[in-house]
Structure formats: C-alpha cells, structure tokens
C-alpha cells in the first residue's frame, strides 16, 4: 500500500494505491471497505471496487458531529461498565413485545439503569477508532454486526458462539465471524448469523468453524447493518439494529428492536401504579390490597377457574377465560376456595389461561382447602404488608383499568397498635400509570 499526501483543494485527505489482484486472481473480490469511527462524529463506512471497477475510486467518508454524543467527557462513557452483553454473546430469547412468545436476537444487553442515549454512546465507545475493546471475539473497530444469515444443511460437530469461520478456495473463498446460530448442533439444519470478514459470502460452500463444526451453505441473505452497531438513538429511545437484543425490563414503549427473523417489535407500555401514604413505623405496617373494580366495589367475581383443584402439590391453575395481559407477572391472585375464603396464591408466570404457581397444598382445610370448578378468582395487583411508605406495581398498559385500593392496619402485635379506619377508594391505572394516597384515620 502506497499513501500520498492530502490535497485540501479537492477535499481529499489520503490517496492510496492498493494491491487488489495477484497471481491472476482477485483479492477479496477487489473490494475495499473504508470506515470512519472518530468518537463524537457520525460513524460512516463506504465500499469501493468489485465488478469491473478500475482506476481511481473514491471512499466517500464523512465525519460530521453526532448530536447524540452529548457527554463531553469520554472518560464518563468509559465508566459505563454496567452496560454490558457479558455472557450473552450468541442466540438469545427475549419477549420484547410481552405477548408470551419469545423472539430471538444475537445479544441481550443490560443498560444498568442508564438512559437509552447512554447505551448508544457506550456502543460508539466500544466501536471507536483505536479501541481496545472486544466484541464477539473481534476488536471493536472491526466489528460491524450481522452482515449475512446463512441456512446450513446438516454437517458435523458443534458450533461455538462466537468463532471464526472459513469456506471455499480461490475466488469463492471467504472468512467470517459467527455471531449467533439458532442450533449449535451442526448435525441439524440451522441458521448461521455471521459477519463477513474477507473474501466473498458463502455460496453452496462447505463452511468450517474454528471448533471443527461443518455445514454446507444453502440460502444466503445479506443483512443491513447499522452504524454504530447499536442502531439509532432518538435521544430518549433506541431504534435497534438488525438482531440487536436488550433485556425486556430495560425497554420502554418508544423503543423498537428488530428480531433475527426481520420483524420490528415495540415493547409494551409498562406503567407503574403506586399507593402512597403508608405507615410502617414501629411495626405498625399497613396491609395493602389493590384489585379490579366493578360497580364501585372490589370485583370478587372477576373470573372463574377450571376445577376441581385439589391435592398436595398443585403447580398450575387454569382460568375459564384468557388472563388479561395487564396482569403483572410474577404476581398473585385471590382464589375462592371451598370454605368461602379468598386465599392469596402467588404465581411465577402465566401464558394464555394458565398460571404457573409454586407448589401449593390444596388437600387440607382453611387456606389449604380444595377449589371447585367455577370458583371465582381475581388478580391482586398489590397484595402485601407494606414494607415502605409507597408500594408500587408495574403492569403492561392495555386500556384503563379501574381498581379498588384497600388499606388496613396490618400490625400483628397483641394488642394491635394505633388501628385505623379501613381505607378504601376507587382509582385507575391509565396509560401513564397512576397513584392513590391512603388516608390513615385512627379508629378510636
């Protein structure tokens, strides 16, 4: 490679003469990729060459200021070590749209409670010119993200995420870095998600991984990359690049991610409802119950269950109708048992009309009595003895939900200290959440 001095009159910063053909064969298809990744600028890249191109070719790179780089001190961004994909390089399942079915990505970033723009800036820092950071086994300055997805017919061995790949000879040769695979068993049909490094994309080639796995390339689909690899920032939301994943709990309704099947997805509107004004001093803890409202009172007959429910180790409860998607998960329900008691039943998750619960004994009496078919249940959005002056619940907003808030003195001492007149109010959970202040009037 021979470099010439810059020519400011023609806005040319460098001139290079590059060997692109040797021994009668093209090197990397006579293609060159130029990148510009000076931190604080809008990152750009540009391909030249290939095909019949000869003579002078222009790398049209720019270095305009990036207005989303709003943290002046790069050392601050370097300190955002909690923004990480550590342990999640490879095929990842995330339910971004909270519909109960996972989508798949090649990463699962955690933001450490930082803003989406912090995440964007951290991504640029990892990818900047001169970086010493590593992404998927590559220096960050060389990392681009997924450039191709390749359907693989069954071969041998086990794919390792990430690992180097190679295929072909002569003009069909190429190398890449495996970023994710939907099935690490190379003896099964799978899809490799890779970054092309050198040469040409595979085309019916035998692909061999650094760990010894093999498979033959079938359908090859080029993928659109983003600069930086994170995607775009609006300043308050992230528009993720192809296949980029973020843990669902860090996402908001304005964010957008694109799964590996190419589907753009928006997270639900997670909103917070709060009950304030609670007393926990001196062990005088209030008990808080928030449940659905109907006719101005707590809706005890919100829905029914499929029964009977009995036995000593029950691990699921099936409801008559589908569980509303604004039901928190995990959480708890109140279930009417055969003794006429609405007992609190915690659950770890739900899908469709089935709650998954920790093993519960329905073979006894009292709280452990059986439940007949058609007995009532209702979701208890908050159902606990207060541990702080404010108790919160996060729900997925679907439509405005009218709720009843009850607060009673929860002190368990004998005698109970400072009992209060039971507080009850109708409130609502809307698109921005909501809150209800409890009034604590002493019961004299």
List strands and helices in order, with pairings.
Blueprint lengths: L1 E3 L10 E3 L3 E2 L2 E2 L4 E6 L7 E6 L24 H5 L13 E3 L8 E3 L10 H12 L6 E2 L2 E2 L8 E9 L6 E5 L6 E8 L8 E10 L6 E4 L4 E9 L8 E3 L4 E5 L13 E3 L5 E2 L3 E8 L9 E9 L2 E2 L4 E2 L6 E8 L12 E6 L5 E6 L1 E3 L2 E9 L13 E5 L1 E4 L5 E7 L3 E9 L13 E7 L4 E4 L7
Parallel strand pairs: 18-19, 21-35
Antiparallel strand pairs: 1-2, 3-4, 5-6, 7-8, 9-10, 11-14, 11-16, 12-13, 12-15, 13-14, 15-16, 17-18, 19-20, 21-32, 22-23, 22-31, 22-33, 24-30, 25-29, 26-27, 26-30, 28-29, 33-34
Proportion in helices: under 10%
Structural shape: elongated
Question: What is the mean predicted local confidence, pLDDT?
Answer: 91
Strand % is: 35-45%
State the strand order across the main sheet.
11-14-13-12-15-16
* Total tally of structural domains: 4
Q: How many strands in all?
A: 35
Largest sheet: 6 strands, antiparallel, barrel
The assigned structural class equals mainly beta
State the end-to-end CA separation. 92 Å
Question: Can you tell me the residue ranges where pLDDT is under 50 for at least 5 consecutive residues?
Answer: none
What is the helix tally?
A: 2
Instruction: State Rg.
Output: 29 Å
């Amino acid at each position: 490679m021979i470099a010439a001095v810059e020519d400011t009159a023609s806005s040319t910063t460098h001139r290079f003469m590059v060997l692109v053909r040797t021994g009668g064969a093209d090197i990397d298809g006579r293609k060159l990729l130029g990148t510009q990744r000076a931190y604080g600028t809008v990152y750009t890249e540009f391909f030249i060459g290939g095909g019949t191109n000869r003579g002078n070719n222009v790398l049209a790179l720019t270095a305009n200021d990036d207005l989303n780089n709003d943290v002046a001190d790069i050392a601050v961004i370097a300190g955002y070590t909690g923004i990480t994909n550590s342990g999640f390089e490879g095929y990842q399942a995330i339910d971004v749209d909270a519909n109960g079915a996972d989508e798949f990505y090649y990463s699962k970033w955690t933001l450490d409670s930082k803003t989406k723009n912090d995440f964007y800036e951290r991504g640029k820092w990892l990818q900047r010119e001169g970086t010493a950071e590593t992404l998927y086994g590559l220096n960050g300055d060389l990392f681009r993200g997924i450039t191709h997805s390749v359907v693989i017919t069954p071969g041998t061995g086990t794919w390792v995420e990430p690992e180097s790949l190679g295929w072909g000879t002569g003009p069909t040769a190429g190398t890449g870095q495996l970023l994710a695979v939907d099935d690490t068993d190379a003896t099964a049909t799978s899809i490799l998600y890779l970054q092309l490094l050198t040469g040409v994309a595979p085309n019916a080639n035998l692909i061999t991984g650094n760990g010894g796995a093999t498979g033959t390339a079938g359908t090859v689909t080029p993928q659109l990359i983003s600069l930086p690899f994170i995607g775009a920032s609006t300043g308050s939301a992230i528009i993720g690049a192809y296949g980029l994943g973020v843990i669902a709990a860090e996402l908001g309704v304005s964010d957008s991610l694109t799964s590996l099947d190419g589907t753009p997805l928006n997270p639900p509107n997670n909103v917070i409802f709060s009950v304030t004004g609670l007393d926990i001093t001196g062990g005088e803890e209030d008990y808080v119950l928030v449940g659905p409202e109907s006719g101005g009172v707590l809706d005890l007959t919100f829905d029914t269950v499929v029964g009977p429910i009995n036995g000593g180790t029950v691990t699921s409860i099936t409801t008559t109708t589908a569980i509303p998607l604004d039901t928190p998960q995990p959480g708890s329900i109140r279930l009417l048992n055969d003794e006429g008691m609405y007992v609190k039943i915690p659950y770890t998750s739900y899908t469709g009309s089935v709650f998954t619960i920790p093993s519960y004994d329905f073979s006894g009496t009292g709280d452990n009595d059986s439940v007949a078919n058609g007995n009532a249940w209702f979701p208890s959005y908050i159902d606990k003895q207060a541990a702080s002056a404010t108790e919160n619940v996060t729900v997925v907003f679907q439509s405005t939900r009218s709720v009843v808030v009850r607060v009673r003195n929860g002190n368990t001492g004998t005698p109970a200290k400072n009992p209060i007149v039971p507080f009850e109010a109708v409130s609502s959970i809307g698109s921005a959440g909501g809150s209800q202040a409890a009034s604590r009037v002493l019961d004299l």
